[in-house]
Amino acid sequence: TSFHPSAKYRFNIDDDGDAKPDTKIDVEFGKLRANGRQNLEIELEGAADDEIEAEGRVGREIEFAETGRVIAGTFDDPFFFDLDGFRNGFQFTGVNFFAGLNVSAIVVEVPSNLLGDGGIGVWGTTSLNGRVIDQMARPAINTALIATDRKDAFNQTRPSEQWEKFGAEVTARIAALSGDAAYAEAIAPVLIPDILTFELGNPAGFLNGRQLADDVIDAELSLLTKGALATDGVANDSPFPGVFPYLAPAN
What we know:
This protein is of the alpha+beta class.
């Protein structure tokens, strides 16, 4: 129920397509007090020298940038996926591994005028003592496409450098999953670098951004296997409120 007091949780936002952050939103936390309270600070640094800071406490909504807001705390885990079936060679049983589980979440709502015009790309990083220990944008890219002994290296590689260092590996993995080398050559550059792309104002859903109820695993299974695997048989079981903070209450 607490966040690491020495970690930096960052939302990276690219608004010109070069896979480098033009806007950074950093969230950092204080030490957990005896009364269970933990402070947080949020800082937004934009391309136009926009610098916005706010602070408050975990579990409480904090307003910033006039219409922006943030909350950090424990919520129902919105992910739904037959993880055991995935680990068992895609022998899916339709059981949602994440049913009833909770997650520590940071939810940030930002005025779109701070993010540029048109399309953006987003990825998250968690750093500890100046070292990136986790990096993610689209779900399961590192999990499904990067070799076990290379996952940490992928986490520490900037998106702008990921294709050079991992493009061949990812292409070969997709070729093995789809059975079609030409198809893999076409799909791999869509998934690497690992950036969640979103056209502002477009509600189409995944792969355009990611709405919480989107069945991202079904979409990626179908994409990676060229339709051979269309579903893990799991449907969303979390009713989302549709308003901030968007996630369902903790179990």
